[in-house]
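As the next step, I selected for study a record pairing a protein sequence with its backbone structure tokens, which the following lines show:
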Amino acid sequence: MAAKAGDNPDSLMTLATVYCLRNLRRTMCYQGFRNKLCLRSDIFLPSEICDKLVNTYMELVHTDSNFEPEESFFQLFSDPRSTRLTRVQLREDFVRDRDLESIRKQDLIELHLTYCNSLSSRSLKALTSFRDTLVSLCLYGCNHIFYRKGGAPLACKEDSEEEEEEESPVSRHMLETHFNFQGFNRLRLLNLGGLPDEMDPEKLLKPLKSLVSLDLSNVQLLGTTFLTQWKDRLASLVLYNVDLSDELITTVLDLSNLRHLDISRESRRTSKFKMTRKILTAVVQRLVHLVSLDISGHVMLDNCTVPHFEEAMGRPSVEPCKSSIYPLQELKRPLQFLGLYDTTLCNVTHIPAYKVTGSKNEDQILNAIEAYTELRPELTHRAINQLFDIARIQHCSQLLRALQLVIAALKCHKYDKSIQVTGSAALFYLTNTEYRSDQSVRLRREVIQVVLNGMEQYQEVTVQRNCCLTLCNFSIPEELEFQYTRVNQLLLKILEPARQDESIQRIAVHLCNALVCQVDNHHKEAVGKMGFVKTMLNLIQKKLQDRMCDQVMEFSWSALWNITDETSDNCQMFLNCRGMSLFLECLKEFPDKQELHRNMLGLLGNVAEVKALRPQLLTPQFISVFSNLLDSKADGIEVSYNACGVLSHIMFDGPDVWLMEEPRREAVMGKMWAAIQSWDVSSQRNINYRSFEPILRLLPQSLSPVSQHWATWALYNLVSVYPRKYCPLLIKEGGMSLLLNVLDQEGSQPKTKEMARKVIDLCENFKEDPMETNQGQEGNYGQRG
């Protein structure tokens, strides 16, 4: 069988790395002085393993809420005699000055710091420690690293192991003026995207003689001629969101060895510079080694494109000679990459590039998400929004790629609300029934994890709604069981506010109900301890105050029915939290709501199965209510059946516990006999038993023949209407011997014995011919409890 999309397993290296990081004290480390994590003395790790440990650690910190960060993790790599780091990628505010100081003795070759806004100028001292070996450095979005937190310039504590870093805020007025890249002789690739306006890039970069790649995204350039110092070496230049001028274009054209040039902008609306046919032609003619060009976000003048009636005939072509963009006809060969996002040029027919970003079609949009996710969230957000429209209105033909790109964007920008909103909306459509058969278990689990990350990070209505709706696309509880505790905690947190958004409330309650349906009792007990029962009762209370019986009300009672099934602790919680009072209020306020009555009586049936709790039901008020409901025709026989079930368990305890004068026990039993006689034994049922144990418990007794009769009728109805489902269950749970005993009991009523014999015959026939079918259709029914 062919593997489904995204089903490639993790490598052994990845699995081992994650295991070690989750179990540091059991694998590589021990608890040292003051509970500090220390590397074992017999551990010596090469750079391949150390790099993987650090980079995977950062990924787990940002994407796995169950992962506990270690305060002194980076200190494990302080001694290059036992650990070797060469290539490190760190992201977001989690990274502190002390972390870089911990690894300052390492001979780093690559160091990528992205959006590390907690770093101050103290980290510049750590950077100078790497100057003899560093080849690639990224400081993109590290807006505070050139400012001091206080103290001496470039202060770096020699004993950071013993001294805690002060978390004083960075002052934007304390610019670090003493740092430059003097001595970074091996540095070839440098990203200074987002460099503060107060910093002079020319002065900062002057010592660097051997750069081949430079990124000055979002940097204000007062002069441009300094770029020519690398005119014979520079192969890649990124000037994203840099204000273009004739002077800058002239300088760029002198960089004759450029292979990648990015002069794109975030949006045409912010661009004052007009990209003319002359400028674009000059770029193509002068920079003859170009393989990658990005001019996204520029206003393009109309004379750049070939009129439609003059375009080359045939299918879209990448041949330069057929290009629909005049200047690109000058290319010697097609470009590997061409950025045309948010330009009119992406809409032409013939584009001489193998990979194009734009908004014309799915391929261009996916290329844009792929190209811009890491460092340009503003573009990524817009491209994902366009992918959302394709998945919603049309059809996504590159499903695996689309899902992987959206997942990557959500992981990368966990703290970007706009991406979380659009990404979660796109996932809803990309995981629906239309695409489901093509997705692997592994891929769908990745979706669930990023959705839960979004729910944890944002309490905002749109994110919560999108995430909840996306979870509805999964088989519940099966596909969510690997995150069972986490998803229940998040849903209960959504339902805590007194007045939550109505649509979110409805979806969240539906999910809660589905999550406690068809799961083991230990799952139900765990969820009950989280406050599930109280949360549902609070919702019911609010709906009563509003005098509204809607889906939230019905789902809440259904969820309580499910979570109390064979779970005595949850039944006790229901009683302790005024559950019976709310039951009576709902009956009074909504006398005609059949579904509501069925759910409430099903729940009380679960409570009645717990012997220790039955005395709390044995009051004149409650018994009268249950007795009156025996006559109910609501939802077929379900309300009457459930009411009779509650009373059957109460009657099972015998006459000695019946201490009230009214209603009389005999009168109630008479109504129970009459109700059972009125039911059609071939009734289709809106119920689903996972176990017959509570029913079978009522068979071997003589104190209440009506309880025995109700239990026998229930078994006869279920095995005759749904033999394939319930005959094996009854046989498995020892029901046959108990029914045979009913036949021998003197106190059993003739009608009860007659039904018991029929149940036995049906199960015997089923054992002989398991393919026996019945006219009753088996399917998914409402959960019992």
Remarks:
- Residues 155-166, 772-785 have pLDDT under 50 and may be disordered.
- Residues 347 and 360 are 6 Å apart (CA to CA).
- The first strand starts at residue 29 and ends at 31.
- Residues 750-768 form the longest helix (19 residues).
